[in-house]
């Protein structure tokens, strides 16, 4: 199966092709210019593989959480490509991709649960926990919380085995107090990990049409729930 994955969730921009397990990636650590960089990177990855867009089986993209602007850039780009080539899209959690990249970087973490955390600004973090048995789905619901709340939630989850922290969200001292064996702040999201996670999701029937593709912001969902609670009945 040939899957092309795109990511602009955070401070990097990457495109990768998973061609039957053979991975090709273009990766740039860049806070800006994602819109200008992304489609030329798609062209380079496809050219390197000797493929046309229409020869792919599916596209994959970070569905979030992450930067609002970054998510919109990747998702709108994938929607345009999907419409043009009539391809399905596989939404992949950006936190799951972050955790997968950390597991790839740290082979010694292979048997543990990786707690991925992105800085959500406003003194909050996006976080989720990913086991080697189900790397694309968080053990607990992905959440946006204050660092101290995230630490309490993680402790209350009662996850068995070793825990490891990955991602820039771990810079908050309150989160760093969580019961993890090690922390790596420098774990950018790579499209190659999206492309690998996308394959079992596609096989499980998780692909959607371009029209159905929507970002997962988490913060919007939390804000809506709070409004629901305080709205007079």
TrEMBL record:
GO terms for biological process: tRNA threonylcarbamoyladenosine modification. It comes from the Bacteria. InterPro entries: ATPase_NBD (IPR043129), Gcp-like_dom (IPR000905), T6A_TsaB (IPR022496). Keywords: Cytoplasm, tRNA processing. Coiled coil: none annotated. Its main location: cytoplasm. SUPFAM superfamilies: Actin-like ATPase domain. Gene3D superfamilies: 3.30.420.40. Residues 30-151 form the Gcp-like domain. It is found in: Cytoplasm. GO terms for cellular component: cytosol. Belongs to the KAE1 / TsaD family. TsaB subfamily. This is tRNA threonylcarbamoyladenosine biosynthesis protein TsaB.
């Amino acid at each position: 199966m040939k899957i092309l994955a795109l990511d602009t969730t955070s401070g990097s921009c990457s495109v990768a092709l998973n061609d039957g397990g053979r991975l090709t990636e273009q990766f740039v650590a860049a806070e800006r210019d994602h819109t200008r960089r992304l489609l030329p990177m798609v062209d380079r990855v496809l050219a390197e593989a000797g493929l046309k867009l229409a020869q792919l089986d599916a596209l994959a993209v970070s569905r979030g959480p992450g930067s609002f602007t970054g998510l919109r850039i990747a998702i709108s780009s994938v929607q345009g490509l999907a419409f043009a080539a009539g391809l399905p899209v596989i939404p992949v959690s950006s936190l799951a991709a972050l955790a997968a990249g950390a597991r790839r970087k740290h082979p010694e973490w292979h048997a543990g649960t990786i707690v991925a955390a992105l800085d959500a600004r406003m003194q909050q973090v996006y976080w989720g926990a990913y086991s080697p048995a189900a790397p694309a789905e968080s053990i607990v619901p992905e959440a946006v919380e204050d660092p101290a709340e995230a630490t309490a939630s993680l402790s209350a989850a009662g996850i068995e085995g070793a825990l490891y922290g990955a991602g820039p969200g771990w810079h908050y001292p309150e989160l760093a107090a969580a019961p993890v064996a090690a922390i790596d702040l420098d774990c950018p999201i790579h499209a190659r990990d999206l492309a690998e996670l996308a394959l079992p999701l596609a096989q499980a029937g998780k692909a959607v049409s371009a029209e159905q593709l929507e970002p997962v912001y988490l913060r919007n969902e939390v804000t809506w729930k709070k409004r629901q609670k305080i709205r007079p009945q």
